[in-house]
Design a protein that fits this description.
This protein is α/β, with parallel strands linked by helices and 495 residues long. 32% of the residues lie in helices and 27% in strands.
Length: 495
Amino acid sequence: MTEIPLIARARAHATSIAFRSGTSTQTYQDILDRSHGLAAALLGEADDLNEARVALLLPGGFGYVAAQWAIWRAGGIKLPICLSATESEWEYALTDSSVSIVMTDAAMAPKIAPLCERLGVRLMDIEAITAVPVKSLPSISPERRAMILYTSGTTSKPKGVVTTHANIQAQIESLVQAWEWSASDRIPLFLPMHHIHGIINVTSCALWSGAMIEPFARFDLNAILDRVSEDAYTLFMAVPTIYVKLIQALESFSESKRTAIIGGFKRMRLMVSGSAALPASVHEQWTALTGQKLLERYGMTEIGMAISNLYHGERRPGAVGAPLPGVEVRLKAESGKIITTEDMPGEIQVRGPGVFAAYWNRPEATAEAFNGDWFCTGDMAVLERGYYRIMGRLSVDIIKSGGYKLSALEIEAALLEHLMIAECAVIGLPDDTWGEAVTAVCVLKDKATLDLPTLRDWCKGRLSVYKVPQRLLVVAELPRNAMGKVTKPAVKALF
């Protein structure tokens, strides 16, 4: 039987602890056993799921990984969905990918059960599955499709990014080599598990290496800092927003408490920042406070991680570093010329075994995303003294806030449903805490009034928390070009 390497490697660490939460622990063998049982439950009388899509609505940790491995071992394609998404967002992902099963737990099952019943999707509460008969599992080739992650693009509808088992393996191996993961590593997990940061960079790299993960249901600052002061971790990975919050917290603590926590951070072997640009000021503050030089990297859903500051070498504030092992990177000028010298900006294009296979059921979008076998990221960068520095998106309709890549068009579409709003434009404005703050510029209907608290309250249930505008500007009219189209650069100029 051909077994997925990530799962096969777990057998070499069978007795090692994979997850620790308080006094509770689970070994690698526990994951293997539980995932086998869940895979058998998924299959039922079938021999192979044959790439049926199975949605995963679970918090990070043992249950999530057991379910993920079960989907893969049964021959399915995993579709992780956001725990805090609205029902309409869940519905889009489930229907666009033709999901046949949703795996969840007792806490989340009641929230998605009505949708599953309406769509005719099988709902599986993994906590209700105990004893299952032993069943032979199918062979899984590296070329099989393994995962769909939805990412907001320059249109209002998110696209499903499809990766194969071979793509995922290449992404893991690149980071394990570059960042020198080992079985002695210990890392906290508090990142969302419907994003590549939590799925690949933390969870998959740790489990590939035989390391230990300590999961948290959310970013619990005090609980995590208590564990840091106890030297619980050797690695730490977070988005820039979290580092800002950590700095603010440390500065507010008593000297004795601050000293103990800072000591824990200082003794870690690696701390990484990603999913959004890390302001140089935050980088420098963190180093001054803890002695740790954050390692910033660059990647996206379609390619995994592509560029990283060096583990052994310079970690330059404001730069994302050099290509990772197995990854090729080039810059292409607007003229179409490939840039071969430093200090000339161009679009980042990437190729390598970790680059995704296709957008789900979108052949035209897939073709448009590639220049030959080079993936066109839509991000502008410049090469300076051997390191890439990101300059921003080619499209002004993408906002990176708190580690999320958001579609401004999707948020605009939701805001236009508000009875007081006649027109709107959504942009991202620079923000030290969030990277970019979601900002709504609105034209109101005659005699209407609207303030930010009222708008944010209205958005609840319509937009996920991280998509709700953080700023509001009411204007008499939106700036337009000669064709009558709203121009985002002109909207930003209003500030």
